[in-house]
Design brief:
Layout lengths: L4 H14 L10 H12 L4 H14 L2 H6 L12 H12 L4 H18 L3 H6 L51 E3 L7 E4 L2 E4 L3 H12 L4 E4 L14 H8 L13 E3 L8 H4 L3 E2 L4 H11 L6 H14 L2 E3 L7 H13 L3 E3 L1 E3 L25 H7 L3 E4 L2 E7 L12 E6 L5 E6 L1 E4 L2 H11 L16 E7 L14 E3 L12 E4 L5 H7 L4 H9 L4 E8 L10 E5 L5 E5 L3 H20 L4 E4 L6 E2 L20 E3 L29 E3 L14 H18 L6
Parallel strand pairs: 1-10, 2-13, 3-4, 3-14, 4-10, 5-23, 14-24
Antiparallel strand pairs: 6-9, 7-9, 8-16, 11-12, 12-13, 15-18, 15-21, 17-18, 19-20, 21-22
Length: 685
């Protein structure tokens, strides 16, 4: 896709309009369109088809007529008429038009700004490894005493790697492509997924003496693969090539898609679950043994396991310094954070794996432990079904299950085990359960996203949000907004050109002008703890009648209030730091230039595709609870009604957290895996 001549012609005409005024690349128009088509092949088939439908719609005379232009195909309009169409579609009252327009706009921009010469033209420094000079907030800190023994940032001279040879595959790791014939085997435990939940469960169970098989749909990756080429690695390391979104395209969902899951691509922030959230779980979900006092030693152990340490103040990037100093100037609460790293050289490419092996993701911690304890890992292997193949007597060893999986080449693998741990993420886990006939009740419902938006400040000096450690500070002044347990917090993201281009609103000359200020943008994100309307499921992940994955989500009015408040708060922070202008990422941005005007930032529409929203915290679709109708698993993580089938990923969380979820998922997985190991001691296949 696109595959019809009409779609190709429409995409080419749309790209000309969207990229008017943007820096030129070196490739031909045909080569650019071919790269757009290749980019779409990271999507599932039905999502590719939807992109084709979007081109058919936007290219039609109906869409141009609705935009106030002659009812002719878009490609046949004059340049002025095409610009008028794009402006009209940006604010169309028809959701399908807005959805189609934004989907194609984002595709064109991310493919164009992936070109190194285009990124360089807006001031992007490019890969850290290829540079001779660093920004003041990049590279090791000057030699000196560490503030804590676990300080995560390198000090003094460090030899930075140049070209890295491919690393040998560890013993016990098998790539799917190496399986040339069908395979059937047995194990005590099958763990599906290698993210923060799956890897911890695999290590805990393997070290308890269980024969563990781990299955991962993504590729095995090492530091040699982390080339710091942001666009190429987005395609390789993120789910759906970084294009995963809700059905209407209104919310981008950033989930890991390689071994290590989200821990490979996240920004390393380690935050414990707030006490009031754990107390809420006990009241509302019936969790047992997860009080703040119970969890404190579990959190401490996880922090030791992943070498979490407090970032020293002199290691903050310019963007993080904006947040820190802005919050202090306003009298708001702000913290330096702990990150899971050792000898971090502040390269700024945490979203694309760590070339320096400083990030202590599960690739460096729990997965090697699982392998050392005898676990076997199969990568590039998609699980299609978990089948219960024995009758459950209700006593003794749980009934045997058969995990069906296949490689992209068509090789089939089955693993029989009495214990299965599903940790495929809050999209993959409910989809697998439903496709296996094990859904129902709360499975797929109660999707929580920490819906996130962005506010940019335009400064008269370089901020360079692509460089330095992405996230080392957090402002949680409003985490319990207006006396409730539901609020928002503010962080700083890494901004590389291909992603920045899709988030910045507009097209043509206006968008090009925004990208030209790339290095002078300060960028904050506001994350809302969603679910303020108790008893309301904001979203769901289901398998539709055609067997396709459907992801739907809507902000509730209560959550909308908090999103609006976060936008105003981010604007205040930028203005306190001297930004000349503050801009939202509404489809038509709202701009404020003074504190007197900052409340206007909250006036924009929040309906789908009118405000850029995204989430890297996709949780809650198989939540723990005692009520089978509204939860997917027991408080011990066992799927209701299926003995021996457990869940240990973010889908299990009963509520949104109000903090970055990595540490919570690891801690809950460790606690539950320890319980599984104790409960089923003696199980062997």
């Amino acid at each position: 896709m696109p595959h019809t001549p009409f779609q190709q012609e429409t995409l080419g005409a749309l790209a000309d309009c969207i990229l008017e005024g943007a820096p030129a690349g070196h490739e031909s128009r045909a080569e650019f369109l071919a790269r757009c088509s290749a980019r779409l092949h990271t999507l599932p088939l039905h999502r590719r088809a939807l992109m084709g439908t979007a081109l058919d719609l936007l290219g039609s005379g109906t869409a141009t007529l609705l935009a106030g232009c002659p009812p002719r195909p878009f490609a046949q309009l004059t340049a002025t008429q095409q610009r008028r169409c794009c402006l009209a579609w940006t604010e169309s009252a028809l959701p399908p038009i807005r959805s189609a327009w934004q989907a194609i706009r984002r595709l064109v921009l991310t493919v164009h700004y992936a070109q190194p010469e285009v990124a360089g033209a807006v001031g992007y420094d490019g890969p850290f490894q290829a540079r001779q000079q660093f920004r003041p907030f990049e590279g090791p800190l000057p030699d000196g005493p560490r503030i804590t023994p676990a300080e995560p940032v390198a000090r003094g001279p460090v030899i930075l790697p140049g070209a890295l040879p491919p690393e040998p595959l560890p013993a016990g790791v098998h790539r799917g492509a190496s399986l040339t014939t069908d395979l059937s085997r047995r194990a005590d435990v099958v763990v599906i997924g290698t993210g923060a939940g799956g890897a911890v469960a695999a290590a805990t169970l393997a070290e308890a003496g269980y024969d563990v098989v781990v299955i991962e749909s993504g590729p095995w990756v090492t530091r040699a693969d982390f080339t710091e080429q942001d666009a190429a690695l987005t395609e390789r390391l993120f789910a759906d090539g970084g294009l995963r979104a809700t059905d209407d395209g209104a919310i981008a969902l950033l989930q890991g898609g390689a071994v290590g899951g989200g821990s490979t691509v996240n920004w390393m922030m380690m935050l414990r679950t707030p006490d009031y959230v754990l107390e809420q779980w006990a009241r509302e979900a019936g969790t047992d043994g997860m009080t703040p006092a119970d969890m404190a030693p579990v959190f401490a152990q996880v922090e030791r396991d992943v070498h979490a340490g407090l970032v020293p103040h002199d290691a903050h990037s310019a963007n993080n310094q904006l947040l820190w100093n802005g919050a202090r100037a306003l009298g708001w609460r702000v913290h330096s954070g702990m990150i899971n790293a050792r000898q971090c050289v502040r390269c700024g490419f945490c979203s694309f794996g760590c070339r320096h092996d400083a990030k202590q993701s599960v690739l460096r911690t729990y997965l090697p432990r699982a392998g050392a304890a005898g676990a076997t890992l199969y990568t590039d292997l998609s699980v299609t079904q978990v089948e219960v193949i024995e009758r459950d007597t209700g006593r003794g060893t749980p009934p045997r299950k058969r995990v069906h999986a296949s490689t992209p080449q068509g090789t089939h693998v089955t693993v029989d085990a009495p214990l299965v741990v599903v940790a495929a993420g809050a999209v993959g886990t409910p989809v697998l359960l439903q496709r296996s006939g094990l859904g129902g009740g709360g499975v797929g419902h109660w999707l929580r996203l920490h819906p996130t938006t962005m506010v940019n400040g335009v400064y008269d000096r370089d901020i360079v949000p692509s460089t330095g450690i992405p996230l080392t500070t957090m402002c949680d002044e409003f985490i319990r907004w207006r006396g409730t347990d539901y609020g928002f917090w503010i962080e700083t993201p890494p901004m590389h050109p291909a992603h920045t281009a899709t988030v910045l609103p507009g097209f043509g000359a206006a968008h090009a002008a925004s990208m030209a200020r790339f290095n002078r943008l300060g960028v904050f994100i506001g994350l809302t703890r969603d679910g303020a309307a108790r008893g309301v499921s904001s979203g769901r992940v289901t398998v539709n009648r055609r067997g396709e994955t459907s992801i739907r989500y809507r902000l509730t009015p209560d959550d909308e209030q908090r999103v609006r408040a976060s936008i105003v708060a981010m604007g205040r922070l930028h203005l306190a730091m001297g930004a000349s202008a503050v801009e939202t990422v509404h489809a038509t941005p709202i701009v404020a230039r003074s504190m007197a005007a900052v409340e206007s930032l909250a006036t924009g529409a929040l309906s789908p595709n009118r405000l850029a929203l995204f989430s890297a915290h996709v949780n809650g679709t198989c939540r723990m609870g005692t009520d089978m109708a509204t939860s997917g698993a027991t408080p011990d993580g066992e799927r209701h009604g299926v003995r021996g089938l457990y869940i240990t990923d973010g889908s299990l969380l009963p509520t949104a957290l109000g903090v970055n979820p990595q540490e919570t998922i690891m801690a809950v997985a460790q606690l539950l895996a320890s319980r599984i190991a104790a409960r089923h001691r003696g199980v062997s296949q």
